[in-house]
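Look over this one:
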Amino acid sequence: MSILPGKLEQALSLAVATLAAGVMPAPMERDADRDQALRKLAAVAGDKGWSMATLRSAAGPDADLLFPAGVVEMVEAWSDLCDRAMVDAMLDTEEPRLSQRVRQAILLRLPPDEQRRAAAAKAMTVFLSIKGQKAFRRAWLRTVNAIWQAAQDDATGLTYVSKRLSLGGLYASVFLYWLARGSDAVGFEAFVDRRLADVLRIGRIKARFGVSAPPSSAPAQ
């Protein structure tokens, strides 16, 4: 992975910090033609990168017209497409425990797929550019929110915000692990389980000692 770890960690920290506002960015433009073009591009982006030239090669000579704002819009839209695929895959889950539904959603969003990981690593080079950083924070907010949506959580108010803050930090660590070692599905799942257990334990400690942050800031009940 050619991304500088320090720069990525800094970007993730800033993205998590924006969760405190509790305001989600507007949905992206969505249509079937854009989605189809993004799927074709993502299949080769790990090797060829995210560019208009690669998009035209993969999806047709006029495919660039689908993304008038350029490459950053294209990568942000792909992140949104991955979020929606995760939510759709969770619609029929029968898991009764919220913590396990969160786990399922994370594993769906970050699969042990080399093509997906390579495409995501190349996408991060776009997101970490000067023009891409605001788009990255928007995409990050949408993903964290989509995980809770996929987990069918209905929190509101302060609990809504605190849950997203809690999950934002957890997702940052598992995303970094996934980029570096996500090809090992067993190892990655074990890492996700450890991080979820840490958040649950902190939530229980807060509840036991009457810390003002609501216990539901942990991604489970």
